[in-house]
Amino acid sequence: MATDTTAAIIGSGASGLFTAQLLNHLTFVHNLKQCLQPDFHHMLHLDTILNEHLPPIFDKRPGKTSTGQWFDSFLYHHAHKKTCLLPKKDHCRHIDWLLFSNQAAGGSWHTYDINQRTISPYHWMEIPGLPIKKNAIRRYTALTDDREKTDALSLRQYFTQYQAQLPPHRLHFNHEVIEIKHNPPYWMLTVKHHNKISMIRATYLILAIGQTEPTWLNIPGEDLSFVSHTNAQAIQSMKKLKPNSHILVIGTGLSAADTISAAQHYKHHISQIVSHQLLTQQSQYTRSSSSHRLMYIGNLPIEYPHQYHVKTMMLYPEKFKNHYTQYLDYQLVALDKQKIAYLIKENQAIKPIKVDHVAFHLGYQSQRSILPKSIMTDNLNTFDHQTLESTDYPNLFLAGSCTGGWFQRFFLGHAFYIAETIKKREYMKNKA
Ligand SMILES: Cc1cc2nc3c(=O)[nH]c(=O)nc-3n(C[C@H](O)[C@H](O)[C@H](O)COP(=O)(O)OP(=O)(O)OC[C@H]3O[C@@H](n4cnc5c(N)ncnc54)[C@H](O)[C@@H]3O)c2cc1C
Asked: Is the domain covering 3-212+366-431 a CATH 3.20.20.70 domain?
């Protein structure tokens, strides 16, 4: 027998938790009295902040979906001043929901090293409705107070506080959804908890599954024991190695930079494969957005001292040759059990190098194998950017970083739009 629910949410990161709160009893309306943006003045006081047409001022904003950008513009105005978003209790439109996640509250912040710092100022990591208390988190200096950062441990604690606001009987942590089937009009979920399997039947399915699967190169030896695919794994492995061990870093983005900084902390020798194109184009480089971001924030030594240092090493490797070697335009093609990495470069012989650890940082993807084959696509991008609903499957929604968005502040709006859409549909159904 399956347990019935109106909406099933998968994921307990910021997106999953916020969706749960909105379905539970929260909404946001426009506070005209505090509104600083003339473009929004047509929205009356206490109007729900839904909109289909974005003003042109949004064109250059870094959010990936219009919905995310729209909500963010009510959250922050001109670098960090909060603006005209007013939370409101919405008990009469409560939706019956259940949340399942194979992690604790906080989602992917559980997979990073506890000292991993945020790139965003800490107050941009807040979920609207629960302020992050300055004195309750570890903070790291920046040029101005409103650019201060925090870290993964502090965020885990914050998300645990957030979770405490939600009804515990609806939250199912350490529950993995292992299969999803579509039996219209229902979504059938197979959920595993320890060794127990249960079935859930839901009208609406919200995937807030993040991007938790590291990208692999698919070369021989990538699964050997001296190879890592996340920062947390790389840091744990490097801690155990003797100083002066040889760490090969594959990747040139922000995670690669974090591993390089940690390797320096443990006094290891670092080798890195870097493309000539990245060094010449720097922040104009578009092939990988994380590399582009490293080049960009690496220009800000006070706010991002570690990234600044790594960028300097990448640009001037000869000055750091005692502990940093750069392999320009090489490719890693294989690893073997003897801890040899085989590199190649166009028109040159294979170059074997002896390593102690190899850290891959090639980005992350969403875990798609749980979805029916017919829904699985190369990316999960077949959804409407305004409504976050799948373009092929009604009542299937995507929220958060699994839509391809990078920064939390630019995808919190997904949860809002999804919850409002579900509330409206259920209201219309009941009325009919
Ligand atoms: C090193 C690093 C630094 C970052 N710094 C910043 C920053 O400064 N600012 C910022 O805004 N963003 C930052 N990010 C990105 C940020 O971590 C993510 O954008 C954010 O955590 C995504 O939230 P989410 O809710 O979409 O997904 P996640 O937090 O990834 O949560 C996904 C959830 O889905 C669950 N899940 C997945 N599949 C299943 C399944 N089959 N069954 C059950 N549960 C499942 C997972 O367990 C997890 O709980 C950083 C990322 C990295 C890697």
From this structure: no
